[in-house]
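Before surveying the methods themselves, let us examine one representative protein, written as a sequence plus integers encoding its fold.
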Amino acid sequence: MVVVLRGGVPQEKIEPLISWLKGKGLGVREFHGQEQCVLGLIGNTAGVDIEMLRSLDIVESVGAVSDPFKAANRKIHPEDTVVSTQGTGGGSLGGGHFALIAGPCSVENEAQITLVAQKVKEAGATFLRGGAFKPRTSPYDFQGLGEEGLRLLLEAKKATGLPIVTELMELRSLPLFEEIDVIQVGARNTQNYDMLKELGRVPNTILLKRGLAGTLKELLMSAEYIMASGNENVILCERGIRTYESDYSRNTLDLSAVPILKRLTHLPVVVDPSHGTGKAYMVEPMSLAAVAAGADGIMIEVHNNPAEALCDGPQSLTPEQFADTARKVFKVREALA
């Protein structure tokens, strides 16, 4: 349920209403726009007298939210959320703040991650991505450097100022992520609800990837798990879904998800064309298309030597290719401004 208050209502008149609603066992999310305050009621609203609410002199209207996701719903939070992290290289995303998130699929050694971090920052990246713990289909593939990989990422952050984005594989590793700016939830964990609830209790920003065959409603409900537990710093990521096509692309990148999600939710939306296609030659055109579709950010895998990469080399750009793509991305954004 959404309660829209009249413009100019002072906070001292809003607080008693919020207290009364919370006394009904409801969660209340308070959003202050430029002209009005909106109260989003989360929980069982059957015990709320709607006509009594409407009769209050501070209330302009009361409406229902039929969608199962509440905290993530744009009806409850009309304006875009801006997620901000620490770092001299950037760190804001959403609400007009665009982000390029770039780096290798996996951290391999100090020289590699330091070089790539410096190169992507020079090209305009505002976040550094890199995997320390890697989910691999085969148990014989490179699984990442683990805790050492996290240490190297933090060293790269010290050198460049770029906030870090890296994936959490399991809850027992969570204490190691205290200094990580953005914890990524991969496609395989998107519906790991115990993990999502625990991530709702941490101060880190969460980048939530769409499941391998997940619907947009399922993605939004996963975000709801995080937000319902108290963490509203959530970024949604379209990373391609499994379809009938498997010969010419790794996944099918669903760019229609961008305007749909932007309509349904206030959360920032980024696109991962690297995992979405699995082919380096497709990353640039899909990045430009994602920007045109309204994405708040692009997440691109960059490796200094893709042919020798220990993980996902075929979908990785070289630093030079990334710099060229970044220039075109910024030109598209300028053209759309």
Observations:
- The chain has a mean pLDDT of 93.
